[in-house]
Amino acid sequence: MISFHRYIDHTNLQPTSGPEDILKLCEEAITYNFYAVCVNSCYVYLAAEKLSGSNVKIAATVGFPLGAASTQSKVTEAKRAVKDGADEIDMVINIGFLKADLHKNVKEDIEAVKKAIGKKTLKVILETCYLNEEEKKIGCMIAEKAGADFVKTSTGFGTGGATLEDVKLMRATVSEKVRVKASGGISSTEEALKYIELGADRIGTSRGVLLMKDTNL
User: Are the CB atoms for 38 and 61 separated by under 8 Å?
Assistant: First the structure.
């Protein structure tokens, strides 16, 4: 019997979300003992205050959702998020660089953020909906070489979200020391459990409460 709730990054990244929405997200995460909340970096300080003394971690997005910010911008955002209380950073890979075969640039971008956050967890979002199979594999391999702790499927703001095929491919591409996060469009417990069975170590979803109400796990 798995501790399903501990796979969930309870997420609110909507551009219209205000402080009260983030506080509600944190309250729900405490109630259900989710692994983490995932928020835009401007709300890390607020989440840190609300979650103080709880077991819930804080994941902050960086270069979100396009991945096209400068490396220095990503580094600055990541450093600030950690200072404000983030335990994990979910950064978006430079998708355009990856598709243009600028692999060195992609690696350096990830390396710079990892160096900036030290021992904090780094998740690299591939945004798989924009990539072909070979690009997904290359993105995973670059992320691992650059020091990523996780590869992650999606932002939830692209043209598509997680798929079972992508999670299976990503799990097969990276070594066991790199974990996989499935996110984007996961709307049922049954679906989430399929991702876990395929090797996903974390589930990113804004529907965490609904998923918990739909399970006896």
Answer: yes
Which CA distances in Å does 167 have to 65, 72, 159, 182, 212?
A: 20, 30, 17, 7, 22
Backbone angles phi, psi at 200, to 5 degrees: -70, 135
Element (H, E) at 142: helix 133-145
Would you state the structure tokens that stand for residue 99, as one six-digit string?
């598709």
Q: How far apart are CA 204 and CA 7, in angstroms?
A: 8
Assessment of whether the complete model's pTM goes beyond 0.90? yes
Per-residue burial over 84-97, b if 16 or more Cβ lie within 10 Å, else e, is: bbbbbbbbbbbbeb
- Helix, strand or coil, per DSSP, at residue 3: coil
Please list the residues that pair with 60 across neighbouring strands.
Answer: 39, 89
Residues 6+ apart with CB under 8 A from 163: 128, 153
| pLDDT tens by residue, the chain, 217 residues | 579 999 999 999 999 999 999 999 999 999 999 999 999 999 999 999 999 999 999 999 999 999 999 999 999 999 999 999 999 999 999 999 999 999 999 999 999 999 999 999 999 999 999 999 999 999 999 999 999 999 999 999 999 999 999 999 999 999 999 999 999 999 899 999 999 999 999 999 999 999 998 866 5
Give the residue among 125, 115, 126, 39 at the shortest CA–CA distance from 75.
115
Cite the active site residues.
90, 152, 181
Q: Which amino acid type is present at position 76?
A: T
